[in-house]
Amino acid sequence: MFGYEPGTFTGALRKGEIGKFELAETGTIFLDEIGDMPLNMQVKLMRVLQEKEIEKLGGKPRKIDFRLIAATNRNLEKMMEENTFRNDLYYRLNVVNIRLPPLRIMKDDLLAC
User: Which of 50, 77, 76, 75 shows the shortest CA–CA distance to 64?
Assistant: First the structure.
């Protein structure tokens, strides 16, 4: 998600690798199934959202401008109660909440496709 600098580790590409957030600079990044993200990655994502800064492996921190859209089919409120999803990340992401019913309930929409 964050990329790496050239020569950071054995087998690294000579040019390094650009990360997903860097690719999305001045644009939008979409994270699907955010509820499946492990806690250690949630911490890193929270830092990026708070600081608006990324740090490539082997690199220095750098400010970045992006918008984020996240989606999940899980109940994040329940996951917070179970301590499997971070409260601070949930409240940072929960700016505009759009709840859609599952397609099995919206059978007419399936026929329209």
Answer: 50
34/45 Cα distance (integer angstroms): 10
Amino acid, res. 105: I
Distance CA 74, CA 79 (A): 8
Q: Which residue has the tokens 């690294």?
A: 12
Banded model confidence at residue 4, pLDDT cuts 50, 70, 90? very high
Residue range 43-68, pLDDT digits in tens: 999 999 999 999 999 999 999 999 99
**The three-state (H, E, C) secondary structure of 34-95, written as one string:** HHHCCHHHHHHHHHHHHHCEEECECCCEEECCCEEEECCCCCHHHHHHCCCCCHHHHHHHCC
Domains and CATH numbers, the chain: 3-98 (3.40.50.300)
- What is d(CA 80, CA 112) in angstroms, rounded to the nearest whole number? 36
**Dist CA 57 CA 81 (whole Å):** 33
